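Bench notes, afternoon.
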Amino acid sequence: MSNKLIKLIMISATLAVVSAGVARADCESDLGLVEKALAAPGLKPAAKAALDAAGVAGSAALKKDDDAGCNKAVMDGLAAAGIAPPPAAAAVATSVSIGDLSPMKTVAVDALKMVGSGNNAGAKTRIKDLEALWDKNAKAMKAANIDKWNALDKTLDTTFKTLRTASPKTADSTTILQSLIALMDKTK
């Protein structure tokens, strides 16, 4: 197997783990709502049964990294128990935004265009702007949502390393930048 193929497989596997980590964090937050609801005083047996079922279904979805399925199971369980979820939980799967990533995404898209046109040196230079933006906003983003920050931070580290190699490979740079942009879109 060529080094290039091995490297692409490793990058893809890393990004799959990072993406799963973001979904896992959201699902764990949803399951936390079930735990809080179960701790409420005066819970009727039917409500407890609905919440127990939601916990089981949500845990099964968590094992499959199915954030949407987890959220649906939890929201359905809360509704069946007669408990209104917090507005943010119903609207965005209890996920707290990390902040506005659009300036960083713009830089990543610029770097991807440069790589696509064969300007790896330009992409290597442009990616410094992304690192500066990330560092400037890191404290606020980390405070807003540590799980999302960690997932993006790991992907950014891989991106910086890939683009800064002595002889960056166009395919590797393209793959990691596309994955970074997709994660930014998902992370909101």
